[in-house]
Amino acid sequence: MPESQTPTTPTPGSDASTAGPLTTDGLVQLLDHEGRRVANPTYDALVAHLDADALRAMYRDMVLVRRFDTEATALQRQGELALFAQALGQEAAQIGSGHALAPQDHVFPSYREHGVAHTRGVDLTDVLRLFRGVDHGGWDPVAHGFHLYTLVIGSHTLHATGYAMGVQRDGDVGTGDPARDTAVVAYFGDGATSQGDVSEALVFAAVNEAPVVFFCQNNQWAISEPTTNQSKVPLADRAPGFGIPAVRVDGNDVLASYAVTQEALQRARSGGGPTFIEAFTYRMGAHTTSDDPSRYRSSEEEEHWRRRDPIDRLRTYLEGLGQLPTSFLDQLDAEADALGERIRTTVRAMGRPSAASMFEHVYATPHSVVEAERTWFEGYEASFLDAQHGEGSHR
């Protein structure tokens, strides 16, 4: 991947822009794909305070989240989960940006932000409650500053913008108090940018100067639809049309992902309004476990990006600094194994929710139609039990 010093998105009509949405020109990069540090006068200062301990913490988080991904995928294949959405290959974008968040910030994720969930203190086994069908989420959004996963593509960007406008009206922006000033982040994929809800969110955010960061993980594939079928220019080029500053970052570079998110969050918290970040990365796994990416992309493409693995990149950098001792790696391996065992044990102990539980939490207050449907369904279910005793048949 070419090294670039340019911190902003190419303007529409420039050579970089006309190269299409997959151009790597203009990407903010602090670590190249071979793990070498790239100087950047705009963003170097934002990572200068990150010492070896901080970098190892990021490396640890990426390794653990990947182990989570591996275990969850295996559990789905064994029939323990109904579905799973992998984040394989997107760890740097998520962990880097997640580490930039302050405790009071609030995140609105889609359904692939396992790394961000981890940085917000969400127990990763709780994430799997949704994919097993036990409940709708499994964690307290207020306690973690991390909303429940959103399965409706792009809809949560409106929720994030509305929440940010509320934060703004509560007076928690631009006070100068770092423990009070709050920003909101909405994570979504490249495919979501084609949804009307995202366009509407950008309008509201821009006009109201809402303290929200739109973090687009461009993993190049919206299910089986490539980004090139969704845009003629880099996705970040759309934001300036709404009056929102934008930046493109190498999403496989954890340092650069941290830096651009830190800048955007500082702008939001100080009252400077929204920012659009496009993290250019790659979905190394399938869209979900019901998808077969071999039907629409080549093994050569996958191998190209496998050589740009975000975890390998940071590991090489730390090794070059002499800051990745064997004792740390051994301890991390043991921690990953323990996490894998806990995930398997916890998921298998979750049991099965009753089918009638789908009628719960539909409305905040009792609803006559829902109750009538619940009553009918419970009677229908009970009739199957009666058939075992010769009282009826549904064959």
Automatic annotation (TrEMBL):
UniProt xrefs under InterPro entries: Alpha-ketoacid_DH_E1_comp, DH_E1, PdhA/BkdA, THDP-binding
Residue segments, region Disordered: 1-23
Biased composition (Polar residues): 1-21
BP GO terms, sorted: branched-chain amino acid catabolic process
Cofactors named for this entry: thiamine diphosphate
PANTHER family: 2-OXOISOVALERATE DEHYDROGENASE SUBUNIT ALPHA, MITOCHONDRIAL (PTHR43380:SF1)
Protein name: Pyruvate dehydrogenase (Acetyl-transferring) E1 component subunit alpha
Lineage: Bacteria, Bacillati, Actinomycetota, Actinomycetes, Micrococcales
Domain Dehydrogenase E1 component: from-to ranges: 60-337
NCBIfam families: PDH_E1_alph_x
CDD domains named in the record: TPP_E1_PDC_ADC_BCADC
GO MF annotation: an example: magnesium ion binding
